[in-house]
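Hi Q.,

Before the meeting this afternoon, I wanted you to have the MTE prediction in hand. No need to reply - just skim if you have a minute. The sequence and ligand are here:
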Amino acid sequence: MHIVRRRGWEISEHLVTPEALALNRRGLMAGALALASAGPALAAPGDAPTRNPKFEAGRALTDEKNATTYNNFYEYGESKNIWRQAQALKQRPWTIKLDGLIKQPRTIDIDDLLKQVQQEERIYRHRCVETWAMTVPWTGFTLSQLVALAEPTSAAKYVVFETAQDKTMKGLDSPFYPWPYTEGVTIQEAANDLTFVGTGLYGKPMPPQNGGPIRLVLPWKYGFKSVKSIAKITFTDKRPKTFWEGIQPAEYGFWANVNPAVAHPRWSQARERLLGNDEMVPTQIYNGYAEFVASLYTDLKHEKLFM
Ligand code: MTE
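Predicted structure with the ligand bound:
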């Protein structure tokens, strides 16, 4: 197989700049204004996303084909090869129910939501608990912007996400799994700058198999925390029982922060396999994002933070 090897900072423009940007008149206007004032253009909600250079993964980008044809999406089945079946998931209309401890519980249309947030592109490493890993450019916005729109009360301690349950998802027929797929983060994790809501991949709308039209992206945690195709977000004061915790609590915990030194009960987490070339590379604590997130956990030493 021919593998194009690029480092994160060498990515060709067509991969990192969505086509829409080149055509976007507001973007051009902002650029012209910036030139005129010799200062940076200020991005605004609804502007076309541009790449945020603060988030460089420092390793080659995974081939788009690999990232979009090797997936976990149990609603469509247990194999990695569900991308064809997932095409049946209709992406519009799409609404997200916001409920629980917020000022005004309501259902929001995804396109109304996207008008109210500033989107950008970030290249993140992604590490599955099964040890495979990828490096991909996500388009999306910080979860903190959505939290601000939801206006949680001071009693809210956790944010809980549920995947849609659609008739095209044949995996839902399996009574073995505690559907709907549910995941959660603390309100502090939700406010962290790394915590991202993905709406696109490789400059295109999020493919359904990767969790379109809207998913969570938590690059310092094992991939199972990054819930796909979100239909409901609940603010609560109770720690949720998450999907994999419900299936096998001895193997999958609430925190699931990446740590090469803490083995899964059935395999080592010391190294990871890069999708595409199958190279084995050392895993990093917090998947290499300790500088952003380690401080979230300093007072939680008694918790099982790494499973
Ligand atoms: N979300 C839902 N709803 N269903 C799933 O099966 N799998 C998780 C996570 N989110 C999953 C999910 C796991 S185990 C991983 S590793 C990532 O999605 C995979 O994301 P990707 O297919 O975009 O690489």
